[in-house]
Amino acid sequence: MISVENISKSFDAVEAVKNVSFSAKPGEIFGLIGPNGAGKSTTIRMIMNIIAPDSGRILFDGRPMVEADKERIGYLPEERGLYKKVKMNDMLLYLGELKGADRSRLQDNIDRWLKKFDLTGWQYRPISELSRGMSQKVQFVAAVAHEPAILFFDEPFAGLDPVSSDLLRESIIELSGKGCTVLFSTHIMEQAERLCNRIFLINSGKQVVYGTLDEIKSAYGSKTVAIEYDGDGSFIRRLPYVAKADLYQRWAELDLADNADPDELLQELARRLSIRRFEIKAPSLHSIFVSLVGGAKEKGDAS
Q1: How do 150-154 and 181-186 pair as beta strands?
Q2: Which of 10, 56, 131, 290 is at a distance of 20 to 30 A from 165, taking alpha carbons?
Q3: Which pTM value belongs to this model?
C-alpha cells in the first residue's frame, strides 16, 4: 500500500504541490486526476523518489521507501523515452534487467505482452521504425514486463487509437485483478470514470476531491438528465428546468434546476424534438470536474 501524507513541493516561487494526502491499495486502480499543470506528474515523481518532497512523507507498506522497493515499481511516464536506434527486444530486456528481473522469465513476459499488443513482427526491429502508437505500447510493456507490484501510468492513452486504447484498458484491469497497486494519472475524465475505484482530484497543487466515484457523485453532483434526440436542440439551454447544458449534435447532458420536474422537462422536449433516449442519472465525472475545476481556473486566470 502507498500512503502519501501531507507532501508539498515548490520550484522557486511556484508551489506545485501543497499538503497532499491519499492512499492507494493493492488491487486498486487509483485515479490521480486534474487539469494540465495541476501537480499530478510532480506528485508521481515524489512517490517514486525521483524528486524529494519539501515536507511530508511517503510510505510503502507503512515504511519509507528503500532501494529494493524501486524494483517493485513499473512506470509509464508522460514524456515517452525509448532509444530510437536499439531493437525493441533488446530495449525491453535492458529495462527489465535494470529492475532485477530474471532474463529467461523476462523474455517470456516480453513475448507474451508483444503478442497481446500485436507487436511480435516488430520485436527485432529498431524503435525508430515504430509509429507513435506502437512506441506507446512498447513503453507500456517496458513498465510491466518485470512483474511489478506497483504501477504508475501517467497519461497512458495519449496517442493511441480506439482499438489500442481498449486493449490497454483491459490490460490495466487485468493487472489490478492480479493484486497490483495501479496509480493512474490523467486529465481525460471518461477514462478515469471507466477505470478507477477511487479518485483524487488535484488542481493548482491542492486537493479538490478525494473518495470513491459514488461518494464524489453523491457529494458534488446534481440531478442529471442524459438525452438523445433528433432535431434542433439549441433551445434547451433556455428552458427554466435546466441549470446547465452540455449540448452536442444529437446528444445532451443536462443539470436540472432546483425543484425542476423531469416529467415536465420531458413533455417540453417531446413537443419540439424526436426523443430517442431520456435517462435520469448521476452526473458524469467530466461534468463534476468542469464544475469544480473550471470555475477555480477562471478565477485564477482573472486574478
Answers
A1: parallel
A2: 290
A3: 0.77
Is there a contact between 254 and 242 (Cβ–Cβ < 8 Å)?
Answer: yes
Tell me which residue of 54, 33, 19 sits closest to 211, measured CA to CA: 33
Q: What is the pLDDT of residues 264-293, one digit of tens each?
A: 999 999 999 999 999 887 777 887 888 788
The structural domains of the chain, ordered by start, are: 2-211 (3.40.50.300), 222-281 (3.30.70)
Residue 107: its H or E element: helix 103-116
Q: Is the dihedral of CA 31, 36, 42, 45 positive or negative?
A: positive
Which of 57, 74, 23, 3 minimizes the C-alpha distance to 212? Answer: 23
pLDDT value for 216: 86
Q: What is the DSSP letter of 260?
A: -
Confidence bin at 295 (pLDDT 50/70/90): low
Report how far residue 294's alpha carbon sits from residue 289's, in angstroms, rounded to the nearest whole number.
7
Q: HSE of 124 in the Cβ direction (CA atoms, 13 Å)?
A: 1
